[in-house]
Design goal:
By secondary structure, this protein is α/β, with parallel strands linked by helices. The chain contains 24 helices and 18 strands. The termini are far apart.
């Protein structure tokens, strides 16, 4: 017992001594130790060998504008439906600049992504907060209004003018400014830089000019390859080695499915549809990314970001020159990660010849179509979006969508041509369903040969043909298209408010339809296809009887329910989201460009907007 007490005392003394000698002084105690040198030593600085130089930080805001709703409020949803590919590609350009030049140039590009659809409206108070935060952090600001479509242009324009009013360098790019020179002239007159075309070959020059304080008012692609369009030839960049999108995990949390993202593996569209602006902005020459890089990107997205679902936003993946290599690579990724799935956009020929119909002889187009369909299914495709557009061959020929009619020379009689079109659509659906993939059709109402009952007939026929999901659109003259040029010359455009070019507003005169009957046809189309009976059947049968695989069934059920409610709430499913949030402090203040100029830059002090006495719709117009 005495021995144990003695041993305990010795242990206590040793512990206290150790603490006093080691533990208390392990961080240096009161001794003035030499600090860790993470930079240059004092001797090097005193001798001028190394001089301290602060890093020049440029905070780049890539903002995707929303649009104004019927009451002038900015559309904003708790959850978005689909991440914006333009934002993530632009973020990749900044990331590449930092990796290659940041250390050598002592410049860092800080990226902030802001998608108004799911991040909320950029209010006047927000703009002031952005400016004050930059001043507090000692960084410079560069504002990029990105991927602006025509129905988003009024909102984007209003934002741009407000940033300019604060003296901030502001840019705008996207399909609208790339296809409508009049808007480019207005924006340049207001001091907003416009970027026409794809940014890969332009971004380095833009940053260089900004760093020198010489940001130009207009940039367009001048290096690359010449591509045909529906009008005059344009220059487009090669994207073989272009930067792939950066996956921002924080950005994805703002969407209904956080495990889904987007990627473009190719760009361009070879067809000449008169209503489409893609060919006039990206050209008819198909360009593809390097397949190995795409497959590596997908594998990393799954491994490091938990991605399970992809949307290939290529305008026509079937026409990509490298589709077979990409799909073959995805088949291998699917073996490693069985939960991988994706949807894509293709034309009717992608699947129509996947079987040999009676009277046909198997040829190259049959083998190509069958190979594509089979590879897509093995790679994890669960849905194919196909541009149907119309059941009437006269409408398709009017729009020069000859790939759907196979009657470029207009030699067939109407009834024979119509029967061929319907048979082609039936084969499209059956061949996709045969491999377990659902079919999402795009359909337009208001072509010249449509009548008052076009919506009801379309809904009934498309259900009968077996399409799983249909997106209905009102015929819209998008800037930069042949239709817009034609209708403008004819004086047929009755609504020049670009905010209404959202495919659910009537903006044209029509020989067979007035505005009311046109809107009635539109309602009959979506209420007919997405009827209560169809909803119940879809819910209780989970798309049974169509041969769809599990992910295709789940996706069809989710989309059907979303489209059912979205259409009935007056929102097009493709320009909306889930759970709308109404912000009454931000509302539209101007319709035309001239009104916007007078309101935001015409001598009006910006703080008057904040006080609420700036006029317009509401207390704080934006």
């Amino acid at each position: 017992m005495v021995l144990l007490v003695c041993l305990a005392c010795v242990a206590l003394i040793a512990g206290v001594s150790g603490y006093l000698v080691i533990g208390r002084n392990r961080y240096g105690g009161k001794r003035a130790g030499r600090p860790l040198e993470l930079g240059a030593s004092q001797s090097a600085l005193s001798q001028g060998v190394m001089r301290p130089e602060p890093c020049r930080t440029i905070r780049v805001y890539f903002i995707k504008p929303s649009r104004y709703d019927e009451n002038g409020y900015v559309q904003f949803f708790r959850y978005g439906v689909q991440p914006n590919n333009t934002l993530t590609v632009l973020a990749a350009l900044n990331d590449t600049f930092n990796k290659r030049y940041s250390a050598a140039r002592n410049v860092y590009l800080q990226t902030v992504l802001w998608d108004e659809i799911c991040d909320g409206a950029v209010s006047p108070e927000t703009i002031m907060a952005i400016k004050e935060k930059a001043r507090e952090d000692g960084v410079e600001l560069l504002i990029g209004l990105s991927g602006v479509q025509s129905n988003q242009y009024p909102r984007g324009r209003d934002l741009g003018l407000q940033f300019v009013a604060h003296g901030l360098p502001t840019m705008m790019g996207g399909f609208h400014v790339s296809g409508y020179p009049e808007s480019v002239k207005f924006l340049n007159r207001c001091g907003i830089t416009t970027i026409v075309g794809e940014a890969e070959n332009l971004w380095g020059q833009i940053i260089e000019d900004f760093l020198r304080g010489e940001l130009q008012l207009h940039y367009s692609v001048t290096e690359g390859i010449r591509a045909k369009t529906g009008q005059e030839d344009i220059i487009v960049p090669l994207i073989t080695d272009a930067q792939l999108p950066v996956i921002d995990d924080r950005y994805l949390t703002r969407f209904f499915n956080e495990a889904m993202t987007t990627i473009d593996t190719s760009r361009g569209c070879p067809f000449t549809c008169s209503y489409c602006s893609v060919k006039n902005v990206m050209g008819r020459t198909m360009r593809s990314r390097e397949p190995e890089a795409v497959v590596h990107w997908v594998r990393d997205a799954i491994r490091f970001h938990g991605i399970e679902s992809l949307f290939l936003v290529d305008d026509d993946f079937f026409r990509s020159p490298r589709w077979e290599e990409i799909l073959t690579g995805l088949v291998e990724v699917k073996k490693e990660y069985p939960r991988l799935s994706f949807m894509m956009q293709v034309d009717v020929d992608a699947s129509v010849y996947a079987n040999v119909a009676p009277g046909e002889t198997e040829g190259a187009k049959h083998r190509r179509s069958k190979r594509f369909v089979d590879l897509a299914a093995r790679a994890g495709c669960y849905q194919a979006f196909v541009g149907i557009e119309s059941l009437n061959p006269d409408n398709l020929n009017f729009a020069t969508k000859y790939q759907n009619t196979d009657d470029r020379q207009h030699r067939l009689k109407l009834e024979e041509s119509r029967a061929r079109v319907l048979e082609k659509y039936r084969r499209v659906v059956e061949n996709w369903h045969r491999v377990g993939i659902s079919v999402h059709a795009g359909y337009m109402l208001g072509f010249p040969f449509d009548g008052p009952d076009c919506g009801r007939i379309a809904a009934k026929t498309l259900r009968k043909l077996g399409f799983d999901i249909v997106s209905f659109f009102i015929m819209t003259p998008l800037p930069g298209t042949e239709d817009q040029v034609r209708y403008a010359k004819e004086g047929a455009i009755i609504d020049w408010d670009f905010n209404n070019l959202d495919s659910q507003h009537v903006t044209l005169k029509h020989e067979r339809l007035d505005t009311d009957s046109w809107m009635r046809a539109y309602r009959e189309a979506f209420t007919g296809f997405y009827s209560f009976a169809s909803l119940l059947k879809t819910i209780f049968t989970v798309c049974g009887g169509r041969g769809l695989d599990a992910e295709a069934r789940r996706s069809t059920l989710r989309q059907f329910m979303y489209y059912f409610f979205s259409y009935r709430q007056g929102r097009h499913p493709m320009v909306g989201g889930v759970w709308q949030i109404l912000r009454r402090d931000v509302r539209r203040a101007a319709i035309t460009d001239d009104e916007a100029y007078r309101h935001y830059l015409g001598g009006m002090r910006f703080d008057a907007i904040l006080r609420g006495d700036g006029g317009g719709f509401a207390a704080a117009p934006a």
